[in-house]
Amino acid sequence: MGRVEGKVVVVTGGAGGIGAACARQLLHEGARVVVADVAHRAGRDLAEELGDRARFAELDVTVEESWERALAETEAAFGPVTTLVNNAGINHRCGIEDVTLVDYQRVVDVNQVGVFLGMRAVLPTMRRAGSGSIVNVSSVDGIVAHPLLHAYVASKWAVRGMTKSVAQEVGPEGVRVNSVHPGPIDTPMTAGREGPLAMARGLPLRRMGEPREVADVVVFLASDASSYCTAAEFVVDGGYVSL
Question: Which of 125, 177, 181, 228 is the most exposed place for a label (fewest CB within 10 A)?
């Protein structure tokens, strides 16, 4: 029996990178999984590859109505949602004097507002399920900071704070909320960039992380093995924040 047997999970940004790794591992461990993304083709292809216990839902995390549709489709197909993995995210690298307000707000809308909308939208279906686990994917940049990533850092610190606040509010209802903080992970977002590679070479583990290593932590937080974990930060960074 898998660690998340019988769970119904929505993974945002599920079509690629860490999100796709989470979808694969959660399904492997027994869950029914909805790959939720704006990337239609990649999301549908992944859901088809995963089989009958997976489906694709179009989701723009910045739009309230999109959340309502995706969660309604999920519940109609699989039953009430027990787990939400708020993974969708974007980045923008630019100096503080050059970043435009439009670019700044776009990052905040996806990374921060999208997490807020997801947590708010999923609570009614989790109440119908009787309990729930919300896993918010932040970053080591939600604990420390790097230059030229102002909007990204701001949004990821916000995710860390919202996680703790919402966890305190919904804990009495049996809903747990935790954040996961990946370090340099080998995904399309970091591919070919010298910054993450240089960072990885200076880590205690001396390498980039793999998406599956983040997914394993997400599976733990989705499972009953983490039943006494809430409002906590789970760092998957090869030792970066210890430096």
Answer: 228
